[in-house]
Specification:
The complex is a heterodimer of chains A (294) and B (328). Chain A is mainly alpha-helical. Chain A contains eleven helices and four strands. In chain A, strand 1 and strand 2 form a beta hairpin. The longest helix of chain A has 32 residues, at 9-40. Chain A is globular. In chain A, 49% of the residues are buried. The mean pLDDT of chain A is 88. In chain B, helix 2 runs parallel beside helix 6. In chain B, a hairpin with a 3-residue loop joins strand 1 (162-163) and strand 2. Chain B is built from 13 helices and two strands, in the order H-H-H-H-H-E-E-H-H-H-H-H-H-H-H. Chain B is mainly alpha-helical and 328 residues long. The two termini of chain B are 23 Å apart. Chain B has helices spanning 24-39, 46-68, 77-92, 98-120, 125-145, 172-195, 197-207, 209-214, 219-245, 255-268, 275-290, 296-311, 315-324, and strands at residues 162-163, 167-168. Classes of the chains: A mainly alpha (294), B mainly alpha (328). The A-B interface holds A 43, 91, 94-95, 98-102, 104-106, 108-117, 119-120, 228, 232-233, 235-236, 238-239, 269, 272-273, 276-277, 279-280, 283-284, 287 and B 1-3, 6-7, 72, 74, 119-120, 122-123, 125-127, 129-131, 133-135, 137-138, 141-142, 144-145, 255, 259, 262, 266, 294-306, 308-310, 313.
Chain lengths: 294, 328
Amino acid sequence: MEEIFGIPTPLLFGQLLLGLINGAFYALLSLGLAVIFGMLNVINFTHGAQFMMGAFVAWMLLNYLGIGYWGALILAPLIVGFTGVILERTMIARLYKLDHLYGLLLTFGVGLIIEGLFRNEFGSSGLPYRIPPELAGAWDLGFMFMPIYRGWVVVVAIVMCLATWLVIEKTKIGSYLRAATENPALVQAFGINVPRMMTLTYGAGVALAAFAGVLAAPIYSVNPQMGSNLIIIVFAVVVIGGMGSILGSVITGFGLGVVEGLTKVFYPEASSTVIFVVMAIVLLARPAGLFGRS
Amino acid sequence: MAAPGGFSGTDFKQEEAFFLGFTRAQFLAFIAMVAFIVISPFFLYPVFLMKLLCFALFACAFNLLIGYVGLLSFGHAAYFGMGGYLAGHAAKVWGFTPEVAILIGGAVGAVLGLAIGWIAIRRQGIYFAMITLAFAQMVYFFAVQAPFTGGEDGIQSIPRGKFLGIVDLSSDMAMYWMTAAIFLIGFLLVHRIVHSPFGMVLKSIRENEPRATSLGYRTDDYKLLAFVLSAGLAGVAGGLKSIVFGIATLTDVFWTMSGEVVLMSLVGGLGTIFGPVVGAAVIITMQNYLAEFGAWVTVIQGAIFVLCVLAFRRGVVGEIGNWLRVRL
């Protein structure tokens, strides 16, 4: 068996792939957080719960309505995004004039409600969600077996991140969005409905989280806690990357996933804490984050 | 950051100190609280009251940061939980007397607070909250893996021991009086800190940090010291809790615990002296009555969060104080 640094290659590449997959979720979620924060100045603590809702809606669509993975990939983000729109209109919009910390507390509370409701209904043990038959199986790459679904997740996540980047940087709507982030009063004076843009931005960020949730459903078991455990790590990712740049949060997300995967190979005991250690180092060296403007 | 009517209690004009730095209204409230603490164990279950006092102290420690420095720490479970573990370990394995064990818990909280606070105060606002939360999660993972914490089982059957090696604390009443004494010392300590010159500087940082800096205060040093004091007190509260209940578990280091202490302070009233105590009483009583409903407790706690933020930002004590036009 081949080895690199005394580590069998299949193990090394296996963990690298796992790291890339975790990184894909970090990237998608921190991207959504960054987009919402840029526009609304709210850190969306409900993001983890909305990720979990995405997975559960996919499960429900399959088990109650018989709609499979591909339908869920489109419908679940729309449904969860719509709940996000309602949440923003009824609650979050009341807090814009207050200290930003209230937005954090509110969305934290909403996250608790959602998680508690799902735990009441479905219990804490996970529900299975099958990998769609088109993506089942694995490719033999010679040095390792690559489950097709995992490759798919990484590719789709990258495409999704790039699409978001394109929308924000290269389209007219994106330019409105960037302008409103800098100076909402002026943009509103030009006749653009900024409050509606904020609502839609929140909905889009939430839909992105739900999309990640659907992607995650066949990999992790669908359970009410799947989001809250992830969101804290994503917060660390956001602190490391800084929320100033879209591509920055994507690169940071994938990079940290890989770092975590490699740590699992070389020093497994630290794999759950390595991201926080990286965060400490970054804060000491560059408090604004790797891509942040302070 | 904290604009008028912002993220802290309403400050009415500076009133004359009546006694011990309390205003007249505060002093009356303090007397009422002490009277309740003295009388209640004859009517209510002492173990429940001890739990309440442990969390009240924890919430007071947390409120010192959010209410008077304007820093929202979302990771106070780390100091509370680690204080609990080390106090439990000290009492059970090292055989220390309970008061020493609790002090060790406090010292652990303070040292941990020094390390985390030193890094976290580099950022403000929501970043500060996210950083403290992330570090607390790191402490949680450490607690899951470290051998002395007993992983999922926690540290069990921690002896209550004898206070100063003399007074046996195995009866609930004896333990209650010690708990009450520690709570009152901690409460008065927070009160003293807030009303000291140091506390005045903290409040000026809360209101306008750049201006405090321009007046020549090294605001980072002040913030860090406040953070260490708060974390140390949280460690004492955690240590006290594990001595009272004879158990230290992962629940106390988990992020939900950080959320609970935020909720207690919010319900009671951020930036009020009595708010955290009232908030802890409300939340602990609620948990006690709703324990059988399982996950509904989470839902109800979330709903209270939402309600408080949307409609009730002053909290119970803040609303009462506002209604009576006094600072509580």
